[in-house]
Amino acid sequence: xxxxxxxxxxxxxxxxxxxxxxxxxxxxxxxxxxxxxxxxxxxxxxxxxxxxxxxxxxxxxxxxxxxxxxxxxxxxxxxxxxxxxxxxxxxxxxxxxxxxxxxxxxxxxxxxxxxxxxxxxxxxxxxxxxxxxxxxxxxxxxxxxxxxxxxxxxxxxxxxxxxxxxxxxxxxxxxxxxxxxxxxxxxxxxxxxxxxxxxxxxxxxxxxxxxxxxxxxxxxxxxxxxxxxxxxxxxxxxxxxxxxxxxxxxxxxxxxxxxxxxxxxxxxxxxxxxxxxx
Length: 278
Fold this sequence. Notes:
The protein is α/β, with parallel strands linked by helices and 278 residues long. The protein is 37% helix and 22% strand. 37% of the residues are buried.
């Protein structure tokens, strides 16, 4: 089974060195890397080409103009030739067994995607802590919106299940992964891998760390949730007309994080951690 590692790149050649090393050290070896560069500066693209030039498993494509992350990630999927796909941000990295563990989780044909735990790291990719909210979710719920980020890195999916049905919203400049997760959630079974397979780097140039872009990030997340509600035919959510909800992330978070719901999530995480250790 061939795996396509997808990288949407923009001016991240320095950090991509760690990403590159983590890919070539994978225990599973039937893979390709599809990199789409979104009009990085010349020196960035030159550094990227130099790093991968002797490995024919890496394929570099370029957008004709800066198109944003939604368009670029869509293009990655369309250019992939693998049975399975998974995005890795160029400033992040994979654990050495990320592909192997993910592929083994596809135990039956109903499974169309997997997701795992991940480590939060500093700018040097030194592990600082485990992201606390990853966990098993109930498949097939009309009212699951990933509001607590249970589904996150390392996320993999069957390419044919996505490419033949829907695409990432190309207008999005953020919340692209959430758009992908929620669309695939509606298509089939997602499986949680109770192991950390991804290293997420926190640094000053990261999009999610840019305080000046926080409101735009929020607006995109709101739009993803609104589109999800529309796809699912939900016009009224928790007795409120969705047209009257100006900030869906806050609204849904409050409704889905009552004391009792937090208690049951804690119990579920405790059980997951127990089985992880035995």
